[in-house]
Write a structure and sequence with these properties.
198 residues; mainly alpha; rod-shaped
Length: 198
């Protein structure tokens, strides 16, 4: 880079402001907007130039607007509006990224670390969730089976009672015949003919 990156304004007793050359500005813009671009904050720390100055250069070059257009339509939405597939894609893509690579990716996607952390937790919970869900479903099925078994035992008892009644009815018919009525019940009906007087 050499010494061609700024010109002192105001001479020896001037205000101390530096004016950067066009070539230097374009190299800084390229570092921020390139394929492996870094943030204005990170570049500010590295180069000793204020972050606001670097951001102003980026905006002045029209890069910020073109970067937003390149990011696609889903970036214009809030991350809360992203689909599950989009969130999972980001979680998988960032699984092996760390440090500046991760920061650059998150900036490219328009995300914050906190959002990524929440999505990672949700994925981990979803992956561990089926065991809990399976246990819950199994418990629910066991309760259902127990209820059905109780109902079946109750119905078996009722069926046994009905069967016993049918057997008794058949025995009754067999003893007294099918066409005859059952003998009358009560006092005085078990002796001879009735005469009408005491």
């Amino acid at each position: 880079m050499g010494g061609d990156f700024f010109i002192q304004i105001g001479g020896m007793g001037g205000s101390g402001l530096a004016e950067y050359t066009a070539g230097f500005k374009s190299r800084m813009i390229e570092r921020m907007a390139g394929a492996e671009g870094i943030s204005a904050t990170a570049l500010s720390r590295e180069m000793g130039i204020s972050q606001s100055t670097l951001s102003r250069w980026l905006r002045g070059a029209g890069i910020v607007e073109s970067m937003k257009k390149k990011q696609g339509t889903h970036r214009a939405r809030s991350p809360r509006q992203w689909t599950a597939e989009e969130k999972l894609r980001v979680v998988l893509a960032t699984a092996e990224l760390t440090g500046e690579e991760l920061g650059a990716y998150l900036r490219q996607e328009g995300l914050h670390q906190a959002q990524l952390d929440r999505w990672r937790s949700a994925v981990a919970e979803a992956l561990s969730g089926p065991d809990k869900q399976k246990r819950k479903a199994a418990l629910k099925e066991a309760r259902k089976i127990k209820t059905l078994e109780r109902e079946l035992r109750r119905k078996d008892k009722a069926l046994a009672e009905v069967t016993a009644l049918l057997v008794l009815k058949k025995s009754w018919k067999h003893l007294w015949g099918t066409g005859t009525k059952a003998p009358p019940r009560g006092k005085g009906h078990d002796s001879g003919p009735h005469t009408g007087s005491p």
